[in-house]
Amino acid sequence: MRISMWIALAFGSFLLVGCRRGPTEALAVAASHGDLPEMDRLLAAGASGDIPAALIWAARSGQPAAIDYLVKRGGDPNETGGVNGWTVLMHAVHKDQPRSVAALLRDGANVNAQTSGGQTALIMAAGYGYTEIVRMLMMHNADPRLTTDSGENALDRAASGVTDIDRFTYGSCQVETVRVLRQFAPDLRPAKGDLKKCG
Question: How far apart are CA 92 and CA 158, in angstroms?
Answer without folding.
Answer: 18
